Amino acid sequence: MAIQLMRAALRPLYRAANDAHPGLLIQRGFEEHSEENKEAKTAHLQRVCGIQPGDFYRYRNAYQRWRTATADPLRFRQLELALESRLFIGLTGGGMLETGCAISHSYGMPYIPGSSVKGVVRAHVGGSRFGHEHPEIINELFGVDADPDKEHPQGLSGLVTFHDAWWVPGSVDHPLVEEIVTTHHLDYYGNEGQTPATDFDSPIPNAQIAVQGRFLFVLKGPRSTPGWLDLAEKMLIAALSSRGIGAKTRTGYGLFDSELQKPAGPVCAWVNATIERLTQQNKTKPEEMLR
């Protein structure tokens, strides 16, 4: 039996839309849920993953504004890192679609929440030898929770702020990509372990939304002591390249390359669109048209 997820009056509007917000399609764009029609979910995910960061959301301009606003090396540290594997972030936000992704409400592109970045780095460093030998540095860097029985009853804010990581426009053609995760023991997980998992269980492919490309990570620290930013940068690279971030990191997802990427130059959507139009009109190469 199919479960209707969208009003009949809205269906033609969603079907006729040439461009749409990926987050809106994930949350509200799935028309109906049916156990018999698995192809409908796959087709919907393919539509979501096919959306490009166009000028409609002005994402490129917003990304350049963010880079410019955080360019002061005495207060900020910018790190552009490339994913070695695909990333699952915000999987539980899809509702009946049974998959989701952390999508910017304003611009419709994937991002990594700063709270997630800080949590991963703190967990990685706190469990290391350095964290056990220098707990006071960990507390200064990441902060301390309020505890009336300890030295800081009101808590202590960290010296370094971990901002949301922005997806780098142009790093790949499509930031969202369809990924297949195969569940081998459906009854075991569905019954909370009451049904034994055996080698005779049938694997069931499950379509998910993953992210690919590069991300811009931004750290903010005290201007008077830039050494804290240097330390936080090393911790961030170590955590993302060895531990990863997001879901399913134990199976290799969410790992980043430890080598910093060179940021691309400023992007102007109007200039790029004009060059592309003149290139097609004159049947020449973009480099020649730019000159």
Can you give a write-up of this model?
The chain is of the alpha+beta class. 35% of the residues lie in helices and 15% in strands. The strands form 4 sheets. Strands 3, 4, 7, 8 and 11 form a 5-stranded antiparallel beta sheet that branches. It has a two-stranded antiparallel sheet with strand order 1-2. Strands 5-6 form a two-stranded antiparallel ribbon. The protein is globular.
In terms of structural class, how would the helical and strand content be classed? alpha+beta
Q: How much of the sequence is in beta strands?
A: 15-25%
User: What is the CA-CA span between the terminal residues?
Assistant: 61 Å
Number of discrete helical segments = 11
Write the layout of secondary structure elements.
Blueprint lengths: L2 E2 L6 H6 L5 H7 L3 E2 L4 H12 L9 H11 L6 E7 L28 E2 L1 H13 L2 H5 L1 H8 E2 L11 E2 L3 E2 L2 E3 L8 E8 L2 H5 L13 E8 L2 E7 L6 H16 L26 H14 L3 H5 L1
Antiparallel strand pairs: 1-2, 3-11, 4-8, 5-6, 7-11, 8-11, 9-10
Please supply descriptive tags for the structure shown above:
alpha+beta; five-stranded antiparallel sheet; 11 helices; 11 strands; 15% strand
